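=== RUN LOG ===
request id: a7f3
mode: sequence -> structure
chains: 1
length: 125
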Amino acid sequence: MNNVPELNVIAWSAAQGDEPPNVLRLANDADPMALADGLAGIGRIELHFPHFTDGRAYSQAYLLRRRLGFEGDLRAIGDVQIDQLLQMARTGFSSAVLNEGLDPADAARHLVRYSGFYQRDLIGT
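=== RESULT ===
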């Protein structure tokens, strides 16, 4: 049994030009709690990873899901590497755009590699 939440992994090339209405792009130094009264009608929030070592977007995702109850698409953009995807899924992201040149098939294999965790996550597993 795999306890990893669903994560839609998107190739960089497939995400280019994907600008549906009701998308909010949140800077990684912004406080998501400031959006408490402004989430109605937002279909997707994009959280930016300026560099793979900058993990502030993980905290933003957790706050948006757990404290603010955001139920739309929470997308990771920027410097997204395959080895980050598992943590993204566990902190509330529902989709991630891989860096250019990375293969979504490799990402899928990575996500099913782990079936259980010692630590709690967003869904309490």
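=== NOTES ===
The CA atoms of residues 51 and 79 lie 5 Å apart.
Helices lie at 12-15, 56-67, 85-91, 104-112.
=== END ===
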